[in-house]
Amino acid sequence: MNGALLVLDLNGYSQDYDINGFESLRDSIAPEIYGHKETKDSIILISSQPRNDNQNNIRNKSNIFLIGDPGVAKSVFGKFVNKITQGSMYVSGSGSSQVGLTATVERIEDNWMIKPGVLPLAREQAVIDELNLISEDDKPKLQEAMSEQRITINKASIHTSLKITCGVFGIANPIQGNFNPDLDLIKQFNLTTPILNRFDLIFVIKDSVDSEKDKKIAEKMLEREGSKIKVEYDADLLKRFFLFIRSQSNPNFSEELNEFISNLYSKIRKSMNGSSKIKINPRFIETIIRLSKASARLRNSLEVSKKDIFRSFEVIRGTYLNEDLPLLNELFELKDFETEEHNKRNKHNKYNKHNKHNKDLANSFNDKDKYKINLEVNNILK
User: Fold this and answer.
1) Buried/exposed 21-32: b ≥16 CB within 10 Å, e otherwise
2) What is the span of the domain harbouring residue 126?
């Protein structure tokens, strides 16, 4: 595929997402796993977010935490994120002391040297499996990395800090075996409150008995065994697409949308009661901003719209937060947005991202134009 056609195809995928939302990409995300649409949708969004901006102290990356019963494919999600994200690294909490999660200082002959771990080395995404098994020494460093986008080193003659540009995709099993919805997460996963508070989205994946769902899971596993799983976008194409999306300009919020988010946040805060396990604070607004900007990037838009806010809440509906905030759907008036989305999809039901017009347009470029586009694509995909 020449560079011109590749750029047009990638823009076509953005147009497909603009019209059809997460459905345009969802089935290609961890295709061997049945269901879990909000978890898959969150992967689409975090894969579209640029690195953290250390210079201006801005966290662009959303941190995701998958928790729940063992044996429910949480690690499969993590490995898929690692597979489709250039600049990501995968580590297990149980082996992080050997590999290095944060950073250590080692003495080599007469000199002390810093040995950076996964968090400083991963440019885009650090996938941490068995997060509940990380060492006590690493916990305060992980907290600093997630909140301040740096790790401070003060040991021997070394006094410095390492920049963190990646997001954290954490995975954990309960220390007592099975997930208990009546116990708080701190006791179940051996993590501190400050670390848990740095996760934008927490998904609880349960091993519940459901005959229809269990049948679908078995069918999907048999398809995988027989190599019969077919996807529209393979992992390599997704890696290229998300790399292209992350390279796009930063979307902005209009004054009207700022007011809309402010009013929404006020309503949600007012609806919370004293018995809530989760407290809604200004970090919730930051989560909405990060997710909405990712959605706008996916649409290749320079401005965030209400559509992007809606899609952010589509993802939030599937998290641990929504279990403690059942009025979330009503507060956001999701039905109005769902109707709007449905109408737009019907209006564009003849859209085809691989249409002949795109190919003709690619072929119409002269050699000079193709040369410029090839340079742009090659720079992005390096």
Assistant:
1) bbebbbbbbbbe
2) 32-225
Three-class DSSP category at 301: coil
306-316 vs 282-298: helix crossing angle, rounded to 10: 120
Q: Is residue 19 part of a domain?
A: no
Residue 22 lies in a domain: no
Task: Indicate the pTM of the whole model.
Answer: 0.84
Query: 42-82: per-residue pLDDT in tens?
Result: 999 999 999 999 888 889 999 999 998 888 889 999 999 99
245 belongs to a structural domain? no
Residue 11 · residue 377 · CB < 8 Å: no
Scan for tokens 């976008």, then name that residue: 233
**CATH at 112:** 3.40.50.300
CA 236 to CA 381: how far, in whole Å? Answer: 11
CA pair distance 48, 29, nearest whole angstrom: 13
Q: Is residue 311 part of a domain?
A: no
Give me 275's structure tokens: 């018995």
Structure tokens at 43: 């992967």
Diameter of the chain measured on Cα atoms: 71
Beta bridge partners of 127: 90, 169
CA neighbor of 316 nearest in space, from 303, 329, 297: 329
Long-range CB contacts (within 8 A, 24+) of 115-121: 116/162, 117/91, 118/89, 118/91, 119/145, 119/151, 119/164, 119/166, 119/168, 120/151, 120/162, 120/163, 120/164, 121/89
Residues present in the chain in total: 382
- State both tokens at 5: 């056609």
- For 196-238, the pLDDT digits (tens) are 999 999 999 988 888 888 898 898 888 888 778 888 889 999 9
